[in-house]
Amino acid sequence: MKISVLFFGITTDLVKASQFSIEVEENSSIATLKTVLKAEFPQLENINSYAIAVNEEYAGDEKVLKGGDVVAVIPPVSGG
C-alpha cells in the first residue's frame, strides 16, 4: 500500500526532501515504517527520538497504517 511521508526541520536536510510516497506492506505499523525509513535513509538512525504523526495526530509505534495515510516525521524542537 502507498503512504505519504512528510519531513520537517532537520529531517528535511537529512533526506534531501520534504515529502515522498513510499510502498509498505498491508497492516504495517509505525515501528515497521521506521525500520523501512532507516534502511532507505541511514542518516535517520535516531528516528526513535522523533515524533510521528499520522493524519495530523501523534501516533505511537503500535499504530497500524492504512493506504493513503500521511505520516509526518517531526524532529525534537528546542527553543526558549
Give the arrangement of secondary structure elements.
Elements: E1 2-7, H1 10-15, E2 19-23, H2 30-40, E3 51-54, E4 57-58, E5 70-74
Parallel strand pairs: 1-5
Antiparallel strand pairs: 1-2, 3-4, 3-5
* Rounded mean pLDDT score: 91
Order of helices and strands: EHEHEEE
What is the percent of helical residues? 10-25%
Biggest beta-sheet profile? 5 strands, mixed
Radius of gyration: 12 Å
Give the uncertain stretches in residue-range form.
Answer: none
- Structural class comes to alpha+beta
Number of helices: 2
Strand runs, count: 5
Q: Strand fraction band? A: 25-35%
Strand order of the largest sheet: 2-1-5-3-4
- Characterize the overall form: globular
Measure the end-to-end span. Answer: 41 Å
